[in-house]
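In the previous chapter we treated chains in isolation. Here, by contrast, the input contains three separate entities that must be folded as one system, with a combined length of 1181 residues.
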Amino acid sequence: MTEKLLLEMKQITKKFPGVLANNNINLSVKPGEIHMLLGENGSGKSTLMNILAGLYKPDSGEIFIKGKKVSFKSPRDAINAGVGMVHQHFKLVDTFTVSENIVLGTGTKFRLNTAEAVGQIESLSSKYGLAVDPTAKIWQLSVGEKQRVEILKTLYKGSELLILDEPTAVLTPQESRDLFNNLRQMARDGRGVVVITHKLQEVMQIADRVTVLRNGKAVATLERDQITEQDLAWLMVGRDVVFQQKKTPARFGVKVLELRNVEALNDNGRPALRGITFDVKEGEIFGIAGVAGNGQRELAQVITGMRRCTAGSIYLNNKNITNLPPEKIIRQGVGHVPEDRMGTGLVPKLGAVDNVILKGYWDTYARGPFLDYKKASLETERLISEFNIKINDPTAPVSLLSGGNLQKLLLAREMSLNPALLVAMYPVRGLDVGATEAVHRLLLEQRTRGTAVLLISEDLDEIFKLSDRVGVIFEGQINGIMKTEHADLEEIGLLMMGAKQTGEMPS
Amino acid sequence: MSSDIFIAILATAITTGTPILYAALGEILTERAGILNLGVEGMMLVGAVSGFMAALQTSNPWMGVFVAMLAGGAMASIHAFLTVTMRANQTVSGLALTIFGIGLSGYLGKPIVGTPLEASFRIFELPLLSSIPFIGPIMFKQDALVYLSYLIVPAMWFFIYRTKAGLNLRAVGENPAAADSLGINVFRIKYVYVIAGGMLAGIGGAYLSLMYVPTWMENIVAGRGWIAVALVIFATWNPGHALLGSYIFGGIDALGFRLQAMDVMIPSYFLKMLPYIFTIIVLILVTGKNAAKHIGAPQSLGLPYDREER
Amino acid sequence: MTTNNLIPAISFEKKLSPSPLMNILVPVVSVILALLTGALLLALTGKDPLQVYSVMFYGAFGSKYGLTETVVKATPLLLAGLGLAVAFRMQLWNIGGEGQIYMGAFGATWVALTIPDQPAWVVLPAMMLAGAVAGGLWAVIPAIPRAYLGVNEIITTLMLNYVAILWIDYLVYGPWKDPAGYNFPLTPSFSESAILPTLGDTRIHAGLLIGVVLAIILYLLIFRTKFGYEIRVLGESPEAARYAGMNITGKIILVMMISGAICGLAGMAELSGVTHRLQQGFSPGYGYTAIIVAWLTKLNPLGIIIVALLFGGLQVGGFAVQMNGVPATVVSMLQGGLLFFVLGGEILTRYRISINSRRGDDTP
């Protein structure tokens, strides 16, 4: 083969305390190729790319860029070698402008002259379809725009190898399509593009080649024409995956949660919810789909009492709970699995027992002014065994638990309160397939038991799998509600981008 | 009040405010790098005593300034080591430094308390500039360190907002992970600016023992280091605002002295309370205003930076 | 063939579980290192460290007088340390302990000077109450802007220290000055009924008892009651507290008030048990030293008793050594130094030092 490889990673191994993240991985990328790195959460793909970006040092193995061996001691070395990484969690300085972020860390001149850079940025911008205002401040931008800034950062530095970590996690289906077109153009100009993903459909859509990681090992590298979705799934998980979890047929009851024209402000004092109206019934899972930042967080907060509504009303089983303090809402039977599981839902430095009593310390686990730790320990033991949570010491800080066990503990606590309504935000974010399935099963169990579940998620697959109805949130309003069995991905995508639904909204 | 007295008060405001200004400028650099340094009071004390001792020995006040700078920087390097490398709690480390600084300066200064200093800084007029009506006698009839501060403030402003290095500094304070991913050496930047901040604090302390009083006495700094920390918030981390703020504080102090001298019926103790009470009020007003205008501290202020966070 | 340069790189890796061995080893080693550094400093300034240390040790622990004095000096540190620990547990940095001590002294003095002729069982509790109330209110002043506006309490509490001290200065140089006191800044002596009972012929006073009882109460409060649970959750994770429906602003004000009240008690105890009058500078920085005491014991009420005794001993040792021409400020240096080492050592309980041998290029 005379074609020179742009990138070659040989026998890369990286160990962290308690986990072998990368185990003798081989990876190669050709110029002009879009190479996808497929694996579930925890398979080691982010670690591998972080090594390539110069953030981690491999314990052993070699890296060759354009045939020359390199050893990165810092991100600067990687950048100088032409590697440009677009992280999943953007590394942008909020208070700086777009151009300041792009020129940060470049150039040797003493004086700062962003005006010069603007011209270059604008030409790159138009060449690759990445429209963004160079003078805007980052905190003013939408998620899609921020991603474009991250890509422009790499192009500005002349990157030949682009790495994108889960780029479509924050995009609508249409935005994802546009992104892939842009990437294809960048590849055509001779660059190599690596995309990290856990979505099989994306691989089928755009990859020239795909390398599948599982448990830290590279299990296969396949050409485009050798790929089928089933094969990929089997490689990714190691066993046959059932694509459609069987849902029991719907048996809905009365309305449990109802929001009417709810309005609320966000932390910056700007309108976050601008007239939300929908309802959730007993035994139903209602999914909220939408790109992050359209009011999801504020929605969960007004329902659970952590944020004031400025207008509108919220009813729980026909009782008005608008602007009631959180402890009253908890007592009315609202469970909440928050976005931030460690730090909001659980207290990291306290033990499992102390976390279990978090919502019941006032009466359930109390005797007068004192806490009833005996009762609390018993309940904790019960939850640990019933929910199959791996905890060695219920008094050790929960920060030591894995993501999956943390989420199970959180869910266990919330479910043990027998809520009438369960609000779950991004419940499987960052969890591996095993934990994800467990959590999904628990949510479906709640549904069978008659709990009303409000599921807020960025993952359309998850929403379709679990929800009975789905509502799309855009800029603080629900602009479309439909039954999932009749829903169309295309239409949902358009709604996520702001189109309005025509016709009747099913209730 | 005649304009003469008014001018005199304003001139004194500058003199009184200058040690606070130096310390505040230093703290601005440190906090912009994301590190909270509550050891300023201790560093000023150590700067004051060591600068005084050096000036006494060498009969050269500039030597005093130089040594004070080194002393402040040395103390700051302890803080940098603890907070950046050892990732210790920044609040407690700063407090430890202040307590240590109080002890160390008292210990070293015991033998020389109250010694008069021949080689102190003197006031001298700047030709031409001091003839400008009104402003002239206020701003240009001062001592060398004040004039130096007039140069440092715009230089620092330019550095922070108009140079690449300044951009890097601001990036480290706002989002060290972002800076790190771009190859900026976060650890080194934090070290450099913490130590630079300590150096400036040392100079601020030396101003007191080499010009303002001038001599060494225990607790010569009397809380000015703390006022400087508050001032940084008041000044929204901007050197120009810090200049204004220090002179305002200096003015309050100067006013208090004036009133004492004018035999006003208020006991001197209450007048001495003014700067501290003023600081509290200002802090309350400013915190509310900053929050409303979304001006904030550098976002990573007070948090230790860890690259391999999993 | 590239040569293998083995470059040892020292880095810190997060540990999987905190090590209980380190929790004991670190403070002990810190004390040793602090003493060594202090010795170095002493030697550099021409003093014999061994001699200084032995004078300090014997001064503090080598005689009955020394031991009892140690306890006397430890008492205000114990009380103030407890008060501060309560606030610190909630991440409320009450640096105003010194001012709260002074204001507590003010409150107690006001009672003592107003009703000197009442019997002790009236006067003493009244003084305690007044001291606690005064200290508590002094802490509430900065607590309110902190609770409602998020104003940094470190600076506000600290500023009030200076104000409190000036207030006391005003009183003892002015309206409360003892006419028979030769113009010294102090009040008249307290009456018999305003003086705390002492142990035998030592100077150890009932303040110690108050302190020990308080330590036990606080321990139970923090670890066994609902209120203490709320403090622990709020201190670790304010977001989780909001999530669980706890009243944050109320708690901030209440906890600061308790903190200030206990420090106020420390002031009252010092006056009623030791100085028997209000005088300028009666607290040589107890409020600040108490910060270190509280921090060193990781805010554990029972541990504070031990460290308070240690620091009391340091204080007494410092006086003893002053007679030999070493300034008492050497004590502050030792205390600060001790804190440095503990702070630095903390990292070892959470992280592990790893020395990686890494194959590097020929190029450095």
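The longest strand of chain C covers residues 5-14. Residues 75-301 of chain C form one domain. Compare these points with the single-chain example from earlier in the chapter.
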